[in-house]
Design a protein that fits this description.
Layout: E1 3-5, E2 10-12, E3 19-28, E4 39-46, E5 58-59, E6 71-73, E7 87-92, E8 102-109, H1 112-115, E9 122-131, E10 141-147, E11 157-166, E12 169-179, H2 182-189
Parallel strand pairs: 1-10
Antiparallel strand pairs: 2-12, 3-7, 3-9, 4-5, 4-8, 6-7, 8-11, 9-10, 11-12
């Protein structure tokens, strides 16, 4: 049975979990702005200082695989339609490079400013972690879930959660920190080049 977390809560991940599925899902509220919503999940592999060690440690729809295939994005969902996970990221903890101490999981709204969209128009957003039995398992056994219940009225980017290493163990922290300025603001905050 999965653990349900609240903002700010953390949990140590099971040491036996080598392969993880990070599923992100959301719905959009009724919106008459004329443009579809395109939310994008991404992962930032960060060093001890909380910054990217190199630009290719930013995993998103245009860079689906990290070094060693430790983190793999399964592709961009342009509409978010349907039930279940809208975007999925796979993590293989045994392949995480030694200079990576934290993985920040982020969701942004594509072209939010031009489309006049923000997270106040998004509902039922969540992140879940599941333990994969092998590299072919695309569902996994549920481990934890974090429902983003907070209201974000002007934010266009969210750091949803962090998976970080401490004392030889991987831990999960439910963050839900909102940013204005979309993906560009997040990339800069993690020391990346825009």
């Amino acid at each position: 049975m999965a653990i349900n977390l609240q903002k700010g809560q953390g949990v140590t991940l099971d040491n036996s979990m080598q392969l993880a599925l990070v599923g992100l899902g959301w719905d959009t509220n009724r919106y008459d702005g004329g443009s579809d919503f395109d939310l994008d999940a991404s992962a930032f592999l960060l060093g001890e200082n909380g910054k990217l060690n190199r630009d290719e440690d930013f995993i998103f729809y245009n860079n689906l695989n990290s070094r060693n295939d430790a983190v793999v994005h399964t592709g961009d969902n342009l509409t978010g339609d349907g039930d279940g996970d809208d975007e999925v990221i796979f993590v293989d903890f045994s392949k995480i490079p030694s200079d990576v101490k934290k993985i920040a999981i982020v969701v942004t709204i594509h072209d939010a400013e031009a489309r006049r969209q923000n997270f106040g128009q998004v509902s039922n957003a969540y992140i879940r972690i599941a333990k994969r039995s092998d590299e072919f398992d695309e569902v996994g056994e549920p481990v934890l879930k974090f429902d983003l219940e907070e209201e974000f009225s002007i934010e266009t980017a969210l750091v949803v959660a962090e998976i970080y290493q401490k004392d030889g163990e991987w831990k999960f922290n439910a963050v839900a920190a909102g940013y204005q300025g979309g993906l560009e603001a997040i990339i800069r905050s993690f020391g990346g080049n825009v």
